[in-house]
């Protein structure tokens, strides 16, 4: 909708634990603050968000979560420890970034894993959030992880058999994300590479509705493929390092914060019932259901248009 302007400022914020978090600010330095929490976990920020926010009106902040994007040390390096990479660490990083930039309150936007992180941050720091926009709502409950890694097999049995067979036989009836994470941390490069390939094949098939061809996707790059697989399995394998119903049970803390929840009815990886439950427990949120949308945000799609409308609503 708007030109993709270049950032007017960017930097690396030392958040402790040897971690440097990359951030950028674009648009109007004196404008209304908005911050995007990217998905994945591990995908890194995407400049396309600059096209959704009027650069004359918004002060838009993008940041790369620990080990992702331009943040260092990169999770793409197998030697990088993930001991200090949990949901609470990311919440603390976002708050340190807000303080570093001197922002009193900001609008938060982001979907998929970004949804969980936004809601967890807002529950902990409600006075720092002006509004929330979430396309593709998730809360990272154990049943959500189990659905993505096992339940979806009923729709994609061909892809699921290959996915399940990618781990040792003794692990095939257990926590598949954790089993893959062990392979992705193997000292053997060949084992790590195969695990990243197998995990990504399954991940892409559930997002696209069956197509798992890497060509033309972010999964085509082996470094990105490994970083994403290692980060996602780290979080999903450990149930996002939060209590099972932490987000749903604490949505009362968002009272007074207006929000727009946008969800596609055809979202295989994140079925609509999660967005429905969040909307029921957060009276200040509006739920927009899109009958023709899935999990991804495509330029010009109904999901993209709904995000634009929500941003306009909160100008």
TrEMBL record:
Catalyzed reaction equations: Release of N-terminal proline from a peptide
AB hydrolase-1 domain boundaries: 35-297
Chain coiled-coil ranges: none
SUPFAM superfamilies in the record: alpha/beta-Hydrolases
EC annotation from Swiss-Prot or TrEMBL: 3.4.11.5
Subcellular location: Cytoplasm
Keywords: Aminopeptidase, Cytoplasm, Hydrolase, Protease
PANTHER family: PROLINE IMINOPEPTIDASE
Family indicated by similarity: Belongs to the peptidase S33 family.
Name the UniProt record assigns to this protein: Proline iminopeptidase
Protein species of origin: Lentzea sokolovensis
